[in-house]
Amino acid sequence: MKDNKQKYQGSNKYIVSDELMNSVNIAIALEKPLLIKGEPGTGKTMLAQSIADALGMELIIWNIKSTTKAQEGLYVYDTVQRLYDSQFGDNDVANIKQYIKLGKLGAAFSAREKVILLIDEIDKADMEFPNDLLWELDQMSFYIPETKEQVSAVNRPIVIITSNAEKELPDAFLRRCIFHYIAFPDPAEMEKIIGVHHPGLERKLLEQAMDSFYMIRNIPNIQKKPSTSELIDWLQALVIGGISPNKIKNELPFMGILLKKNEDLDTLLNQLYNSKGQNKKNPNYKSGASTYYSGY
Ligand SMILES: Nc1ncnc2c1ncn2[C@@H]1O[C@H](COP(=O)(O)OP(=O)(O)O)[C@@H](O)[C@H]1O
Ligand SMILES: [Mg+2]
């Protein structure tokens, strides 16, 4: 590694595993894009912010939508404005440069300092999108025919690409990336993450809420499993609502924060109803904090 300052060692607001930290540093050292996959809420977007914070670099975020085209990331030529100016304005319309607007990739390449470029949720776009960017991401350079200009990165940006795995990405694209999968945090990791957001949370409240949270995530047929951010919000609601830890498991207050679909709320109610019926006969059933960390 050329520069010690460029070694990522996590940041105080973001909990990172050693493996993820290594993947980040390998991607930085090899100057390859880091592709992060994982279900929603596993901290993919936040990782880019954490790297930017830790290395003191600017973060440029390109949010990908289903309609996003690769070209928009390079530059757009505002022909509509030029036409407007030619009729009503007093700009020199022969100066095409003023109608060229750099996209996020263009901005990252032409930044004076090395920046972090986050291409967020690349799997939202169509199949051609990743392939269309291969050359530019390899070369960190592109040509603007309208102005005969070459935009080349003086400092190759650190590129972080995230995917919720909605679609498979093309092989040629995968080959060029360092890949890392963020697994959903286990309870011990989740506790650390919660500690960042809610330091000093009452132990019993945390245990009961975590028990319920993982129980709900483990119910088969839940369509939209609650994620880390929902657990963080739920804990906040429980604290603000002054809910007693003893009531959490039985009453599951503010369930709408964890489950956003009516079908999922129904599935949960069915599950609770059925398991309560069975538990009377099941001698292995334990309630309360003793079930913590078990069965996940
Ligand atoms: N490792 C982590 N450390 C701290 N907070 C985290 C972590 N992972 C997730 N979070 C919390 O969960 C929220 C969702 O994370 P986000 O990066 O948006 O997930 P994703 O992009 O994978 O959907 C964040 O805003 C943060 O509050
Ligand atoms: Mg995200």
In words, what does this structure look like?
The strands form 3 sheets. This protein has a 5-stranded parallel β-sheet, sandwiched between helices. The protein contains 14 helices and 9 strands. The protein has 2 domains: 4-181, 3-Layer(aba) Sandwich (Rossmann fold), CATH 3.40.50; 187-291. It is elongated, with a radius of gyration of 24 Å. With 296 residues, the protein is α/β, with parallel strands linked by helices. α10 packs across α11 (228-240) and α10 runs parallel beside α12 (245-251). Residues 279-296 have low confidence and may be disordered. Magnesium ion (MG) is lined by residues 44-45, 120, 162.
Helix content: 40-55%
CATH top-level class of the largest domain: Alpha Beta
Figure out the total of helices.
Answer: 14
Q: How many angstroms does the end-to-end distance come to?
A: 39 Å
What is the strand content?
Answer: 5-15%
Give the ordered list of helices and strands.
HEHEHEHEHEHHEEEHEHHHHHH
Low-confidence stretches: 279-296
| CATH architect. name of the largest domain | 3-Layer(aba) Sandwich
| Class based on secondary structure composition and strand pairing | alpha/beta
The gross shape turns out to be elongated
- Our Rg estimate from Cα atoms comes to 24 Å
